[in-house]
Amino acid sequence: MDKSYVFYNGEIVEEEKVSVSIRSRVVNYGLGVFEGIRAYWSDEDQELYGFKLIEHYKRFLQSAKVVNLKIDYTAEELADFTIELLRKNGYKQTTYIRPIAYKDTKTVGVSIEGHEDDVVAIYLQPMGKYMEQEEFRVKVSSWVRIADNMLPPRTKATAGYLNSALASLEAKRAGYDEAVLLNRNGYVCEGPGENIFIYKKGKLITPPASDDILEGITRDVVMQLAREELGIECVEKSIARTELYNADEVFFSGTAMEVAPVVEVDGIKVADGKSGEVCMKLKELFADITHGRNEKYKDSLRPVYGK
Ligand code: PMP
């Protein structure tokens, strides 16, 4: 296998030169924040496009601010490093980009004070589809979604993903494809790594930021596409569990998952149990814009090889 390179505290280095100690606070307490970004390979253009890099890095910086991690770079600089890293690795395939910042302090103790051992790194993972399935059968989790005054989902904190992982594990053990988490108030929140939408009576509905969701970048794009390309009204409002059962369509959105139909919730078919029409149109529109096939959205893409 060819060498892979990562970004580590300002430099691009061979991945094998980087390691994390078992003493590190990020290993022991999950004291870190991360992002998930995609770069899309276009066969037509023979180009790799970083998608919404600035939006992701702005969210990364905001996450870091909340948990007192110091990142000495702007969103623009982090985007530039990412392009450089993608070039250095030379990938000509759709790739997942994982920026991560963490406390690498090696003394025992749970503090997030001080910045001496803060690390900022980026690694890459070629990734086509995130999961095997084309359509998802989901289970409402018995695990409750963490809240903003517990472990804020908005921060995309490493530790918070144990909540996601427990929900996914429970769903998969019960024979479902994925979980849906409710928040403390019993309202629909999101999937373990994706936002959720329902389509009902001609309107697209998704939970508001105040319902303890991660404000997804794909979620924003989906709402923009629905409004501007399909002329569909979008509403951000709390969704009750039974609204999932009675929706005309349910679907997920997320960087890894992209746009994916949910056809069954807790063993109950959503409408006729087939992928929804609106979801599939949005999925296609999303694929077009991420692969550079729609001029109107070209400014959300940053070419890596820059022809
Ligand atoms: N919710 C959670 C919990 C997530 O981890 C993600 C993935 N980042 C999303 C929603 C979707 O966000 P985005 O569209 O920005 O990837």
From TrEMBL:
Cofactor(s) named in the record: pyridoxal 5'-phosphate
The keyword DNA repair is annotated on this UniProt entry: no
Name of a matching Pfam family: Aminotran_4
Alphabetical GO biological process terms: isoleucine biosynthetic process; L-leucine biosynthetic process; L-valine biosynthetic process
EC annotation from Swiss-Prot or TrEMBL: 2.6.1.42
Amino-acid biosynthesis keyword on record: yes
Pathway annotation from the record: Amino-acid biosynthesis; L-isoleucine biosynthesis; L-isoleucine from 2-oxobutanoate: step 4/4; Amino-acid biosynthesis; L-leucine biosynthesis; L-leucine from 3-methyl-2-oxobutanoate: step 4/4; Amino-acid biosynthesis; L-valine biosynthesis; L-valine from pyruvate: step 4/4
The entry's keywords: Amino-acid biosynthesis, Aminotransferase, Branched-chain amino acid biosynthesis, Pyridoxal phosphate, Transferase
InterPro entries found in the cross-reference section: Aminotrans_IV, Aminotransferase-like, B_amino_transI, BCAT-like_C, BCAT-like_N, Class-IV_PLP-Dep_Aminotrnsfr
MF terms in GO: branched-chain-amino-acid transaminase activity
Top enzyme class: transferase
TM helices/strands, residue ranges: none
Recorded catalytic activity of this chain's protein: L-leucine + 2-oxoglutarate = 4-methyl-2-oxopentanoate + L-glutamate; L-valine + 2-oxoglutarate = 3-methyl-2-oxobutanoate + L-glutamate; L-isoleucine + 2-oxoglutarate = (S)-3-methyl-2-oxopentanoate + L-glutamate
Family, similarity comment: Belongs to the class-IV pyridoxal-phosphate-dependent aminotransferase family.
Function comment: Acts on leucine, isoleucine and valine.
Entry-linked PANTHER family: AMINO-ACID AMINOTRANSFERASE, BRANCHED-CHAIN-AMINO-ACID AMINOTRANSFERASE-RELATED
Protein name, as recorded: Branched-chain-amino-acid aminotransferase
Gene source species: Peptoniphilus porci
